Amino acid sequence: MASDRLGLEPAVHPTAHLWDCRLGRYTEVGARTRLSDTQLDDYSYIVEDGQANYTIIGKFCSIASHVRINPGNHPMERASQAHFTYRASAYWPGEAADEPAFFARRRALSVTIGHDVWIGHGAVILPGRTIGTGAVVGAGTILTRDVAPYTIVVGNPGRVVRRRFPEAVADRLQALGWWDWDHDRLRRALPDFRALAIEAFLERYEAEAP
Question: Among 39, 160, 167, 197, which has the highest number of CB atoms less than 10 A from its own CB?
Fold first, then answer.
């Protein structure tokens, strides 16, 4: 991944399965990935064998293979935590397909991911978590807590190893909000994204701010 050419219409692999999702421009969904009740905003992608449920994903996010975002929990407080209690129609004709209250609780524990976030191979993001803009979640991380913007977390459970940038620089990046630039402005700035050190990049484009 990625496709040879991305565009205004999302690129969704034929083997992917999507239910009640909204995909932005220049987005891509890889093979065998399953998304439900998920928003994937402009320029973001999730590659093969991923899964996301009840999740809002910002712009320019890079989500590696085999990532699980907001996997389901079982009702441990019940006499049985098994599937039949909340998906009874699979077992008895005439039962409702899904138990409304159970899935309402799942939706209430949505995951929110900011812009320009990188989630590594095989990470698991547990229900109700928020990942701030610019953060990195390392490969194989089990994320049980929220992640601050521009912070790198790794491990099981996920722990902070360092910030990508000092807090003052991170604040300036969030104020600049380059992820909201239009497509043509991103193209004009491409050489600077590639070549300029972060302070020089900020100084140049802060000076252009209206």
Answer: 39
